[in-house]
């Protein structure tokens, strides 16, 4: 752990443009709500911000100290982080001069982390509002010449289904709007349903993550700092499920003495094993694209990271990216076949889902149409066909991510 502390501190100096031999206090400010403050972690040293404090305190080589200021406060929204003088809409609490962007900048930070996981959505604020607030923080930081890094939202059980979907969409907005300056914690913390907190990481209140969850956030932040200081500049890294495979895609904006990448996979985001290797460009000042296909992912969550290896043997890790491989659900089936008065559709789902059903005759004409909602698990839906003429029919099943057809005979 000592080597990890020294390495991480050296990386922070590098990111901030300070030579490691110089004596200078490095300052980190964290803005945010309850997760930043430490909710869900016990003891409090287990929270991600306090883990960061412990990891970077006291540069043992030259005496310079790294200071982490935690401005996080439970229950706050991104309106609380807005600049002094900002007036929020009626019903919302406005800027807190002791916790907002002005306060963060007054600390003369080298890096600002922003961690508002879910309160905006829980308080019925739109994603546009949240992103506008983030862009305002970014503007103030840019004017002051400070680095600002945004953590994505995290899943939350204690909100409606629509709000859970909004949080997931907001994750994509943060990653797309602040490319290279956003840390994806959503994929590490979400359950296999893609919307709620992984039960193994839940603090039990439907809102916060436990010590394991905080550790994953801390490690993702650490990996981000490490990747930012690499001689190989990684501008993009993503994992995409393609049928039964996982396609890993990454880009570098520049490379220096890059020998190769080792692709590593884990089922728990902790214990990684190498599954392949891709040769690096060596030295480059232009964009280079890479791709690797994992043909044997496991059902459930698959976590990936890149181990970048220099020509001299030095190594460093990328951020972790995550993709979920869904277990095959039972095929949609119709019964009884043939049928006379009604036809039943047996259909399984891994979450609540809206579907559309068309019953089509052999000439391609839609005889009837239905909108239905199915629940997680196995569902049986019944459709009347007594008034339809005898003959051959097709049931078209339109789901959120697929369209299928099943044939049946009406007696």
Characterize the structure shown:
23% of the residues lie in helices and 36% in strands. Strand 13 (333-335) and strand 14 (342-349) form a beta hairpin. With 411 residues, the protein is an alpha+beta fold. It has three domains: 2-229, 3-Layer(aba) Sandwich (Rossmann fold), CATH 3.40.50.1110; 231-328, Immunoglobulins (Immunoglobulin-like, Sandwich); 333-410, Immunoglobulin-like (Sandwich), CATH 2.60.40. Strands 6, 7, 8, 9, 10, 11 and 12 form a seven-stranded antiparallel beta sheet that branches. The protein has a five-stranded parallel beta sheet with strand order 2-1-3-4-5, sandwiched between helices.
The level 1 CATH classification of the largest domain is: Alpha Beta
Assign the structural class, choosing from mainly alpha, mainly beta, alpha/beta, alpha+beta, or little secondary structure: alpha+beta
Number of helices: 9
- Helix/strand order, N-terminal first: HEHHEHEHHEHEHHEEEEEEEEEEEEEE
CATH architecture of the largest domain: 3-Layer(aba) Sandwich
Distance between the termini: 73 Å
Beta-strand proportion = 35-45%
Write the CATH fold name of the largest domain: Rossmann fold
Helix content: 10-25%
How many beta-strand segments?
A: 19
Radius of gyration from the alpha-carbon trace, in angstroms: 25 Å
- Characterize the biggest β-sheet: 7 strands, antiparallel
Domain count: the total is 3
Q: Which regions contain 5 or more consecutive residues with pLDDT less than 50?
A: 1-9, 13-23
Question: CATH homologous superfamily of the largest domain?
Answer: SGNH hydrolase
The pLDDT mean sits at: 88
- What overall form do the CA principal axes indicate? globular
């Amino acid at each position: 752990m000592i080597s990890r502390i020294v390495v991480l501190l050296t990386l922070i100096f590098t990111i901030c443009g300070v030579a490691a031999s110089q004596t200078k206090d490095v300052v980190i400010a964290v803005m945010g709500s309850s997760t930043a403050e430490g909710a869900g972690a016990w003891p409090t040293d287990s929270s991600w911000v306090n883990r960061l404090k412990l990891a970077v305190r006291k540069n043992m080589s030259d005496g310079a100290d790294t200071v982490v200021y935690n401005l996080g406060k439970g229950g706050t929204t991104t309106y609380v982080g807005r600049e002094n003088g900002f007036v929020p809409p009626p019903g919302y609490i406005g800027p807190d001069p002791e916790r907002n962007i002005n306060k963060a900048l007054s600390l003369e930070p080298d890096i600002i982390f922003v961690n508002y996981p879910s309160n905006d959505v829980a308080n019925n604020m739109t994603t546009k509002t949240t992103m506008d607030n983030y862009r305002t923080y970014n503007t103030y930081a840019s004017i002051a010449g400070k680095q600002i890094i945004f953590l994505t939202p995290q899943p939350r059980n204690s909100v409606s289904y629509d709000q859970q979907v909004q949080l997931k969409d907001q994750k994509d907005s943060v990653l797309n709007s602040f490319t290279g300056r956003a840390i994806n914690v959503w994929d590490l913390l979400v359950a296999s349903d893609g919307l709620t907190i992984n039960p193994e990481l839940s603090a039990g209140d439907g809102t916060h993550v436990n010590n394991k969850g905080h550790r994953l956030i801390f490690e993702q932040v650490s990996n981000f700092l490490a990747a930012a200081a690499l001689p190989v500049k990684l501008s993009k890294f993503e994992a995409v499920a393609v049928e039964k495979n996982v396609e890993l895609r990454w880009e570098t904006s520049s490379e220096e003495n890059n020998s190769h990448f080792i692709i590593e996979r884990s089922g728990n985001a902790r214990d990684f094993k190498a599954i392949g290797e891709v040769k690096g460009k060596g030295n480059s000042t232009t964009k280079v694209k890479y791709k690797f296909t994992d043909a044997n992912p496991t059902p459930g969550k698959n976590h990936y990271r890149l181990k970048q290896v220099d020509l001299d043997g030095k190594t460093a890790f990328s951020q972790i990216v995550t993709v979920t491989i869904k277990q095959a659900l039972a095929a949609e089936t119709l019964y009884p076949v043939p049928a006379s008065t009604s036809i039943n559709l047996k259909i399984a789902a891994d979450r609540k889902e809206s579907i559309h059903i068309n019953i089509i005759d052999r000439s391609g004409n839609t005889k009837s149409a239905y909108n239905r909602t199915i629940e997680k698990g196995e569902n049986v839906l019944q459709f009347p066909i007594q008034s339809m003429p005898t003959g051959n029919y097709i049931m078209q099943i339109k789901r959120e991510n697929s369209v299928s057809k099943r044939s049946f005979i009406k007696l």
